[in-house]
Amino acid sequence: MRILAIETSCDETGISILETRTTAEGISRGAHIKVLANELLTQSSIHASYGGVFPTIARREHAKSIVPLIAHALTKANLHRPLKKARVLLPKEFRALEKIFHKEPELFATFQKELLALKIPKIDAIAVTAGPGLEPALWVGINTAQALGVLWNIPVIPVNHMEGHIVASLLEPTKTKTSATSYHIVPIYYPALALLISGGHTELVLIPRKGMYKILGQTRDDAVGEAFDKVARMLGLTYPGGPEISKLAEKAPHTTVPRFPLPRPMLKSGDFDFSFAGLKTAVLYTLKNIINPTEEDKACIAKEFEDSATEVLVTKTLAAAKKYHVGEIILGGGVTANKKIRDTFQSTIAKELPNIKLFIPNRDLSTDNGLMIGIAGLLRTKTSKNIRADGTLRLAKK
Ligand code: KG4
Ligand code: ZN
Questions:
Q1: Which CATH topology does 2-169+366-380 take?
Q2: Mean pLDDT of the chain
Q3: CB-count exposure of residue 301 (10 Å: 0-12, 13-18, 19+)
Q4: What is the pLDDT of residues 344-369, one digit of tens each?
Q5: How far does residue 354's CA lie from ligand 2's centre (Å)?
Q6: What is the DSSP letter of 142?
Q7: Residue 78: CB partners within 8 Å, gap ≥ 6?
Q8: From atom 7 of ligand 1, which residue's Cα is the shortest distance away?
């Protein structure tokens, strides 16, 4: 089975082409998945001047890059075969595509120009992020996926982006005879607990068994990644702020008492909810109270902010792990790229819950990518003819 996956939920256009010789069941038992292509185009420099992602601009940029990126991925996968004469669509096919792209005439034009000129590649299904995310951005991926489904006469599988982040954490590179990258999924034992931390989400999710989710807690206001991005902006750093905050925090002098103490919001709330808006405001007031903050002052604030967010995330996750007697903790989402958060989870779990297995995604699979959507698609396999973008798609009801 070969699958082409599309990710456009935020500001990364991700296309991957994966191959496996087995079924979804085989994959969850650890079979190999070969990566034929994994292409990523980030828009972050375009959004940087706005200090965050602008949905209509994200949509425009995805629409500009998605078809060339698909063509590029097909070339990488050795599936790009130009025809001597471009294919002519049947009236039925043309009507179906026209309907799909009725709001995107330019994308329709590029789609026809590039993809009708190619032989139908040996691909069995398309996987696409259906949500959660920015709806205008999601639609570009969904429309392109559905159009490819018509053009190549193959099914389309809707994928939940957050499930993608969970599976990204379970991937382990496999050694193969060839130089091709390949992964397998490390089987997990249930119940497991996932902490999903990204630009739009902060959620603690219990996974009682495969594919079943129960939301134990979530943020009541800003997501942790969003707080990183907003605090970075206050400190004069560029978007995306997460990596910039980490870099600045490393420059802070080592002290036992923080120069500018910040709160640990909801640390002792007794539930599994989070709140990061207050922490962000505390940074704002701290900065207002310093006349001409030096680079070192800013580094101290960045470090204290990172320490606060880390302490809350680690403490609540460990409390949930104890309460629900889980054997495994899975971290997922862009914020897992943060070194402080990765290291603190590792050291605290080793000390306090040494029997628990911790899964953290490889750094290059922490932030959004097409590969995780392809793997989630291979595992889900449920197809749909009428996928709709759902900005607030949930893994489960709370
Ligand atoms: O999962 P992701 O790529 O996109 C969403 O689904 O939202 O996560 C993006 C978020 C951004 O808020 C970004 O600042 C944050 O992940 N991020 C980080 C780091 N790298 C990315 N946050 C803290 N430290 C990092 N090193
Ligand atoms: Zn994400």
A1: Nucleotidyltransferase; domain 5 (3.30.420)
A2: 96
A3: buried
A4: 999 999 999 999 999 999 999 999 99
A5: 29
A6: H
A7: 36
A8: 199
The CATH T-level fold of domain 188-360 is: Nucleotidyltransferase; domain 5 (3.30.420)
CB of 198 closer than 6 angstroms to any ligand 1 atom: yes
The atom number, within ligand 1, closest to the CA of 340 reads 24
pTM: 0.97
Domain residue extents for the chain = 2-169+366-380, 188-360
Atom of ligand 1 lying closest to residue 11 CA: 4
136 lines ligand 1 (CB under 6 A): no
- Identify the CA nearest to 203 among candidates 330, 327, 53, 328: 330
Report the nearest atom of ligand 1 relative to the CA of 229: 14
What number is the average pLDDT over the span 149-156? 98
For residue 242, is pLDDT > 80? yes
User: Residue 338, annotated ligand binder?
Assistant: yes
Same topology, domains 2-169+366-380 and 188-360? Answer is yes
- The reply to whether ligand 1 has any atom less than 6 angstroms from the CB of 203 is no
**Ligand 2: distance of its center to the CA of 165 in Å?**
7
CB 133 within 8 A of CB 200: yes
Ligand 1 lined by 328 (C-beta under 6 Å): no
What pLDDT is stored for residue 23 in this prediction?
87
Percent of the chain scoring above 70 in pLDDT: 99
Q: How far apart are CA 138 and CA 158, in angstroms?
A: 11
Q: Among 115-124, 180-189, 342-351, which stretch is predicted with the lowest mean pLDDT?
A: 180-189
